[in-house]
Design brief:
mainly alpha; 1 helix
Length: 80
């Protein structure tokens, strides 16, 4: 059996559900479906409290880093 992965979703992230669905197929969901209080993966693996906590912390910190970089670039452009 070949190892299957999620195809790239244009304009957004993707998450491969850890378990196969009832038909033995891989299920991929958008990042926005993780921890949205709706079980999108088989067995609700996208709503596990520990995963949601980690996801929230990472998401918040990534946004802070992104904002820091954008602010720095804007400042650099103004100073030129």
């Amino acid at each position: 059996m070949l190892y299957q992965v999620c195809s790239r979703i244009p304009g957004g992230g993707e998450f491969r559900c850890p378990k196969l669905d009832r038909n033995g197929a891989i299920k991929c969901i958008y990042d926005s479906q993780i921890c949205n209080h709706t079980a999108d993966c088989p067995d609700g693996d996208d709503e596990i409290p520990a995963l949601c906590l980690l996801y929230a912390v990472l998401d918040a910190n990534i946004k802070k880093v992104f904002d820091f970089i954008i602010t720095g670039l804007e400042s650099y452009r103004r100073d030129m």
